[in-house]
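Example with several molecule types.
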Amino acid sequence: MARVRLVEVARAAGVHPATASRALNPQARDEVSASTVQRVQRAAEQLGYVPNTLARGLRTSRSFVAALVIPDITNSLFPPIVRGAEQVLAGAGFTLVLTDTNNDVELERGQLASMRAHGVDGFIVATARWEDALVADLAGSGLPTVLVNRRCDSASLPFVGADDQRGVRLCVEHLAGLGHRAIVHLAGPADTSTGRERASAFRAAMRDHGLSTRAAVISCTGYSENAGRLAAERLVKAGKPFTAIVAANDLLALGAMEVLAEHGLSCPADFSITGFNDLAFMRKLTPPLTTVKVPLTDMGAVAARTLLHWILAADGISTTQTLLPVELVVRGTTGPA
Amino acid sequence: MARVRLVEVARAAGVHPATASRALNPQARDEVSASTVQRVQRAAEQLGYVPNTLARGLRTSRSFVAALVIPDITNSLFPPIVRGAEQVLAGAGFTLVLTDTNNDVELERGQLASMRAHGVDGFIVATARWEDALVADLAGSGLPTVLVNRRCDSASLPFVGADDQRGVRLCVEHLAGLGHRAIVHLAGPADTSTGRERASAFRAAMRDHGLSTRAAVISCTGYSENAGRLAAERLVKAGKPFTAIVAANDLLALGAMEVLAEHGLSCPADFSITGFNDLAFMRKLTPPLTTVKVPLTDMGAVAARTLLHWILAADGISTTQTLLPVELVVRGTTGPA
DNA sequence: GTGAAAGCGCTAACAC
DNA sequence: GTGTTAGCGCTTTCAC
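Resulting structure tokens for the full complex:
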């Protein structure tokens, strides 16, 4: 099953390889007579010609591959993003290489190097930390790079994310409207833009409602259920009364609810809680989680489109910051104070 | 930020490119004097040399890329598989390209062609249908290919999956042990090996317990919650009494539970139900789902190892069929008849 | 509109 | 142990 090369197609069509190349390339097709195009295409079809992208890439220094860097594909936040990106990329004839950094900076460094070695045309990065040397490197290299979900302090790169500020504000407003005044925020890690921005939005929204934020923000070490458990333990230990929690994401909310339940606190009778992202199955929990719905698939798709634009347009770097609209989905975990 | 080429490294180290190549290649490093290796490596480091995998691949006809073909990354069954595969592959210096077929055969055809054009060294396929021309093509092409999760009727390719037979048998035994006799199976689609094999295992297990399978198997059109809903509707309409359900996977179980709840049937009081796969969050439902735990990450990892073996060993095709052990996790959805 | 020739960056076969 | 040479499969000037 040896692979058919362009030369063979050309020979079969009775033309020079260069002509065959032109006939097969949509870009250059019109430099060739229609009848030749026909003959070449037929020959290619007949022989089952599959172009060698490596060889083409070597020549054109374009690989038609985009890399997507994810911290943990197992976190249901990311699959929809991957999917959105893949669809757009595939639609444009690009291939997606996926790399899961397992939240490990050293691993990520190696993977990025490997991707670059493979000559990828661009990166979509979902792992950005607030201060991120790797992303800074990427930005410095001039390789088209789009940040998704999380931004970076340093690099001025295009970014596609959710309107976090508005999401958190919706939560606080909803809770305040239900009469809650002692509202606590389980903040995401300070080395992520989402953690920082959701926390500052929380503070702003509380202020706007004339509510105090003294000791109302608990920092979590990560975005996992376990980090949520730990935070809730601290909350309980602190002994400060609260009637509502705004968690920086769904997983934190889940972990916190578990611990609180172990302490005999039931939801929404004893406390209300909101999540963020609306992961799959959140509506199936008991009670179903009130949370902020984020258009994750769109996020991936828009990120991919932004990247493609940069790769193909060649007309310099746009640094568009796109914030996708979010929506509060009120379900069972929030009730009157 | 022009990319540094091997020539430049060689020049900096004062050697011929070929020598630099050897020094940098672990395979051929011992054909070069230690001091030269030192010099070349230092030069490469200093210049920030990133080898061009495309060029190497063109020369060696090996790209160090493996493709993973997934029907729907959004289905939580697949992310753990992806993750397991990615880790093993990355550990061996391979890059993973991911393609999500969206369960669409036409799309899949195009994607496979594109992957082949990119010169991938092998495929891990999680989309296999029972009769699958695309997989047959792949098998015929001689390209290293490993099937994961689902097998194929036709192709004799290595396969890594779960011990479905045993999983279903465990469910039936558990249910029978609780006194259930009217047990129904929500079968997966007949064009998947998992659907077929779980159904036949169900029949066998029922027979072994002296239970009738007359009208006890309902075929679902897919593996989605919605397919589960539809099947449950049919079950209710049919009016045939039942006290327990063995669903071919978790999603089907979830959909069925929803419909049954709408009909006023509560679980486990009015009926028991088991799932398959133990997706994330299944233990968080109310009641938590009794299901068969499958080592999904391992499945991905073993599939990747099998593929690597084939790619690197070159000593012909092994067609090992690996069945990973499963385990019944008894939770809240099963109770006495 | 088509052919000829050169070369993308690397490595393998062969010299020495 | 290291240099020389050739070529992987394709595209792209440049002639004609």
